[in-house]
Amino acid sequence: MPLTAEQIEEQRARAERIANASRNGAHPDDSIELPELLDSVAAGIKRYVVLDGCQADVLALVTAHTHALDAADVTPYINITSPEKRCGKSLLLEVVSQLVARPWPTSRVTAAVLVRRIARDTPTLLLDETDAAFKADREFAETLRAVINMGFRRGGVASLCVKAGGDFDLKDFPVFCPKILCGIGELPDTVRDRSIRIELKRRAPGESAERFRRRDAEKIAAPIREGLAQWASGTVATLSESRPIIPPELDDRAAEAWEVLLAIADIAGGTWPARARRAALLMSTGDGREDDSEGVRLLSDIRTVFEERKAERLASKTLADALADMEDAPWGDLGDRGKRLDQRALARRLKPYRPAIRPHQIRIGEKTLKGYELGDFADAWRRYCPRISPETETSETSETSETNSAPKYEQTDPDVSDVSDVSPPRGIRTKRREVAP
After folding, report:
1. Confidence of residue 253 (pLDDT cuts 50, 70, 90)
2. What is the pTM of this model?
3. How far apart are CA 16 and CA 12, in angstroms?
């Protein structure tokens, strides 16, 4: 829902109060309230763009992260995407650019400028039209891929040929910086694996948002941005020491991305630890973290066939035909003159998962046929497509180090990020707050 006039005025007054405290040099613990800043970021974004609560929350946490980048060894990427044009992707980038640290909005530069600018300024890269960028000339597309793949972790570099005297030599440029990538469709696999996906949809009848006017938005955003910068200046040491408890449902790559965001949420306290973990579970596990590589898709579809038939074993031809008949799967048309998946193609695609998964003699009724048993796939299913049912009613918080028993936070509504809906913040604490279980 769009903010009311009263909420907008409250947000303006709150932002100005934060800015005044920052300009007067007040101590962060006394004046700069992180929960209030995060709430203002989330509400400010939702003011102009139709988002759900989890999406706004993760953008608020990432915004804070850009100001406290010195505390992080890994930076979570944001992948803003949509199925069609005019869903608000570029608008969202423009709104976020008002709030993040050192924004660099761009859609296309040369490969050398991309690397050198990141190395010089450590900006927050706001890259629009990634679908076009990865289809551009090969040099830029490959450089962009390298920058994203290597810039995920502190110390990552990209190499360029530079002129040294009369000769050329290789030079490494640091490319670690926050990155928000925006475009239609899917990113390359390795890039997508490092990203938290935010999918926008075209506004439906009845959904509304305020028209974005940059000059007006800047008046509200500037004091919030200054407040985040002031907060970060006094919190980097504490944040770098944080070791938040990470939901076990997150895979290793997702856990790396979310760690710094969960640490920021835990420092904020209040509703934010639960909100952050709810967003992590909904956006980076299960369907929100779907691995759509061909092999994982095949394993998942094979499990579906076994379950639907309640079978302990299936002949190769039976399994291949059942996969090819699945309406929403690619196995009925493999792109080779409309060829369907057959037994040979099935065995070839399952070859990487040997020795456990390979066609062998099985007994079905009175016949002995080549096929597969349910147990053949158990290890692969457990490793590559485990079933995950996130529990979002409660969520663990963090302490300075992980423990076996974590206190619980009461779950809040996902749309609690509007400033009028949150409880009064208690401010930043440089030490972990004790929370009653």
Report:
1. confident
2. 0.71
3. 6
